[in-house]
């Protein structure tokens, strides 16, 4: 089982929170972040990164189901 990570480059404000939490999954690319790994195994820290994004620019999916950010 793997999760798909998407970063909305139009919404991202480049705060770097995600890259600080998981540098192996996210990196800053200029003024925005991008997912270095498009697919990852289920990981609570990935959800924490999506939850902590001030622009809500990170979406984590398990197949068609959105699992992050959490409500």
UniProtKB/TrEMBL annotation:
Tell whether Transport is among the UniProt keywords. Answer: yes
Query: Per UniProt, which keywords does this protein have?
Result: 3Fe-4S, Electron transport, Iron, Iron-sulfur, Metal-binding, Transport
Q: Would the keyword Nucleus turn up in this protein's UniProt record?
A: no
* Top-rank taxon, per record: Bacteria
Q: Name one Pfam family in it.
A: Fer4_13
What InterPro entries does its record include? 3Fe4S_ferredoxin, Fe-S_cluster_ET
Q: Which cofactor does it need?
A: [3Fe-4S] cluster
Task performed by this protein: Ferredoxins are iron-sulfur proteins that transfer electrons in a wide variety of metabolic reactions.
Q: What is this protein called?
A: Ferredoxin
Where does this protein come from, organism-wise? Answer: Amycolatopsis albidoflavus
Q: What is the lineage of its organism?
A: Bacteria, Bacillati, Actinomycetota, Actinomycetes, Pseudonocardiales
């Amino acid at each position: 089982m793997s999760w798909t990570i998407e970063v909305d480059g139009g919404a991202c404000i480049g705060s770097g929170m995600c890259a600080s939490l998981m540098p192996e999954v996210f990196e800053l690319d200029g003024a925005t972040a991008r997912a270095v790994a498009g697919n990852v195994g289920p990981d609570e820290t990935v959800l924490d990164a999506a939850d902590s994004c001030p622009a809500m620019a990170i979406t984590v999916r398990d197949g068609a189901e959105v699992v992050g950010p959490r409500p």
